[in-house]
Amino acid sequence: MTLYDAYGREVDTGLLKTEQAAPTMAGVRNIFSVMHPSAGLTPHRLAQILREAEFGDPFLYLELAEEMEEKDLHYLAVLGTRKQAAAQLDIVVRPASGAADDERAAAMVRAMLTGGAVQLESALIDILDAIGKGFSVAEMIWDTQGSEWFPTQIKWRDPRWFMFDWIGGEEVLVRTLKGENDTAPADEPSAGRHFAGNNPAGRTGSGIQPLTAPLAPFKFITHFAKAKAGLPIRGGLARAAGWAYLFKNYVLKDWVGFTEVFGQPLRLGKSKPGATEQDKQALLRAVASIGSDAAAIIPESMAIEFTDARVGGSAEMYRGFCEYLDAQVSKAVLGQTLTTEMPASGGGSRAAAQVHDAVRGDILAADARRLSATLTRDLARPIVELNMGPRARYPQIQLAMPDAADTKAFAETIAMLADRGLQVSQRTILDKLGLPSPAPGDAVLSPARGAGVAAE
Q: Does residue 109 contact residue 380 with C-beta atoms inside 8 Å?
């Protein structure tokens, strides 16, 4: 039986038994960062890095996005808040319909995801890395030994090991030096500037374009979290936050220099007439080092005086600029600012904070819907097709949004409607309440004897 993935590509089950995008000691998929694009970053350099990403080589952009999370604590905090908000949602598997086959397919997916073989909850943070970078890739490791095929691991793969096709800009390709499908057209651009070289066959072409290969169907979870419409590589928040990161670094550098100059008292060295040039240089070194070492040795004929710290400038300009840039990053990532910092003047009302939190909730709902669609396409469908064959509809993996509704009122309403003949799926109620289905042999609750019978 021939299987096809969601993109219509034929599935080669033999490729599911090996790792296609594993790291290598040498070559194009090593784990080391050696270029450090954030070091000495300038507006011209940043524009060049973003332009290279648009033109098909996002390596430096992806490395810069990683370093931004490590060096800018505010960006790390707001981006982490958004990721954690979606990753902590409950995972729910819903059948495509009430038909017996659809229920069985959903039960199979549910059992594989909750049986402990694959830790999907821990993998969600890696998958949600797409929020910052625009896309993420996780490789599934399949167990093919028994009667059922099921994923045992979902491994994070460094986004630097991937790039997009140069024609449509939407298909993810893995970087490789192997000679698979050595069919690059003669008029294609040469290999990416950061990975120039030849493959074993002696030509700079593997896969659809130089030094790349298509992702094997049913092997990868590829998630796109577009902050705006357009090409996936231009949809990451790091692209917009990069400018705030750059300008903030300039401001912080000036602020540190300002603090060094105006934050310490002026140290004035005095020497007696007739002092030699050597004595003057020794006094200068002592004056320069006493500010940091708090100790110095000078001849008895010399003296050092301390005056009050200078007040010729104000640090508020630097503070205000940094707070402004942080607020812009908060708006880009979370859609608002009141859940991350209070305004410097005027404070914030409870009503305004609730409105801002509602905006953040809307973004969370959008992230959950996108992630649910990705997991359904790249995880639920392969599980079902490999074990049950192609189907017209597949179970959905959903992230259940927290419901502020009163659980007691909901239960009473359902009970009242059920008494009046409304047919409600038990699975729907369990998903709504966040409860798992009882396993065979589990003790279950049942109505108390005589419940519902009016007393005489």
A: yes
DSSP for 126-192? HHTTHHHHSEEEEEEEEE-SSSS-EEEEEEEE-GGGEEE-TTTS-SEEEE--S-TTB---TTS--S-
Average pLDDT over residues 235-240: 94
Q: What is the four-CA torsion angle of 203, 217, 233, 210, rounded to 10 degrees?
A: 0
Beta-carbon contacts of 445 under 8 Å, excluding residues fewer than 6 positions away, are: none
Listed residue (198, 93, 70, 25) closest to 436, CA to CA: 93
Q: Residue 344's pLDDT is what? A: 55
Please provide the size of the chain in residues: 456
Comparing CA positions, the residue from 432, 72, 20 lying closest to residue 248 is 72
Please tell me the distance from the alpha carbon of residue 72 to that of residue 249, in angstroms, as a whole number. Answer: 9
What is the identity of the amino acid at 220? F
Q: Write the pLDDT tens digit of every residue in 88-108.
A: 998 999 999 888 999 999 999
> H/E/C letters for each residue in 24-92?
CCCCCCCCCCCCCCCCCCCHHHHHHHHHHHHCCCCHHHHHHHHHHHHHCHHHHHHHHHHHHHHHCCEEE
Give yes or no for a contact between 78 and 333, defined as CB atoms under 8 angstroms apart.
yes
- Residue 412 neighbours by CB under 8 Å, 6+ apart: none
Distance set, CA 132 to CA 66, 297, 361, 376 (Å): 9, 53, 18, 22
In whole angstroms, give the CA distance from residue 134 to residue 123.
Answer: 17
Closest CA to 399 of 121, 179, 190, 198: 121
pLDDT, one tens digit per residue, over 421-447 is: 888 777 777 777 666 677 677 777 777
Sheet holding 212-214, edge to edge: 162-164, 172-175, 212-214
Q: For 29-73, what is each residue's pLDDT tens digit?
A: 999 888 899 999 999 999 999 999 998 899 999 999 999 999 999
Please determine, for residue 170, whether its predicted confidence score (pLDDT) is greater than 70: yes
323 in helix, strand or coil?
helix
